Amino acid sequence: MSNKFKTISVVGTTLVLAASLVACSDDGGSTGGGNGGEGNGDAPTVALSNAYIGNSWRQTMINKFEGAAADAKEQGIISDFKVSNAPGENSATDQIAQIKSILLEDPDILLINPASPTALSPVIADACAQDITVVVFDSDVESDCAYVVTNSFPEWARVSTEAVIEAMGGEGNLLISRGVVGSDPEAQFYEAQMEVLENYPDINVVGEVTGMCSSSDAQKAVVGVLPSMPEIDGVAGCGDGFGIAQAFISADREIPAIAFEPSGRALEFWESNEVAEGSIAIMSDPAQSIVALYVGVAIHEGRDVPETTIYPSVLINEEDLDEWANAVGDDEIASWPWTKDLVDEYIEANINDTLDSIDLPPVPTLD
Questions:
Q1: End-to-end CA distance of the chain
Q2: How far apart are CA 249 and CA 182, in angstroms?
Q3: Which of 300, 311, 335, 336 has the fewest other C-beta atoms within 10 Å?
Q4: Residue 91 Cα distances to 96, 133, 139, 218, angstroms
Q5: Third-level CATH fold of 153-283
Q6: Tens-digit pLDDT profile for the chain (367 aa)?
Q7: What are the CA-CA distances from residue 37 to residues 44, 45, 250, 303, 309 (Å)?
Q8: pTM tops 0.85, yes or no
Q9: Residue range(s) in the chain whose domain bears CATH number 3.40.50.2300
């Protein structure tokens, strides 16, 4: 596989799917004050507001940020950082209260993984009125002053669905596992899937289940319908392939072509079991929190940064499986190893419209 961004087609225009399709201390926050380094008094302070911490993607996202932020503090790039995790289940109300509390501390840079693309608009405006640099990630947001860093939901849907269909040879029975039906990101994902299917008249969609982009939910949903289903040649889902594969095993059926989530456990399962050739693993990158950090630093330094910075989802093909499986912990989601220099390269590629030719980040090594 060519190591170019254009090869995997993960260039797009909007949004990130992981939290919406699927989604640190006792008081919901952790400070970077004890994470090493004396800091730099002239460097910015950074606060991260997270609306939900209840899945592996979010936990990986926070862990990757804290590690990168501690390194950035050690190097004097930032002077301090703090993470605040809202206590509820992706509640915009809880997050608004959380952000208002953060604003009392007046950080230089505020990073937000939002519970809602609309409900946070007033409190984001309050942050901007305090001359705080606001960077939103893992979702779009309605704001005139916030910057956004993002993968692309529709492109994720197209890449994963096309991979499954191509693994089926362009024909046969397809089951669709949908995400959080009714949410805007899921609607975009599903619409992109339908556009892909228009190009494959020999694909027969035999049913749909609501898997919530969660392996456990998808497993239950698929187990419930398999007894009434004909032979299934592929399942198009959104980060729930591990559970779907287990559903087929429990039904004593061969595992069809699927799109796994790139978790350590899913990759290990893929390595160890017979899965239809052509399957892939793909998901938005939980280390986008690191991208948001260094985009915020660039903005704070007065550098030219697009209102929206696009960067690649994590895509793992069969030929790369062993290398990735050795680099991802059991309870982690695979992520690119972002550095400040690498983020700066992507900022320039966004400005110069050269994302189709930029090299992908390297496969990380296990921490």
A1: 25
A2: 30
A3: 300
A4: 9, 23, 14, 23
A5: Rossmann fold (3.40.50)
A6: 333 333 333 333 333 344 444 443 333 455 554 333 344 558 999 999 998 887 788 899 999 999 999 999 999 999 999 999 987 778 899 999 999 999 999 999 999 999 888 999 999 999 999 999 999 998 889 999 999 998 888 889 999 999 999 999 999 999 999 987 876 678 889 999 999 999 999 999 999 999 988 899 999 999 999 999 999 999 999 989 999 999 999 999 999 999 999 999 999 999 999 999 999 999 999 999 999 999 999 999 999 999 999 989 999 999 999 999 999 998 899 999 999 999 999 999 999 999 989 988 999 986 5
A7: 14, 14, 51, 25, 29
A8: no
A9: 5-151+285-312+338-352, 153-283
Dig out the tokens for 110 from the structure. 């505020």
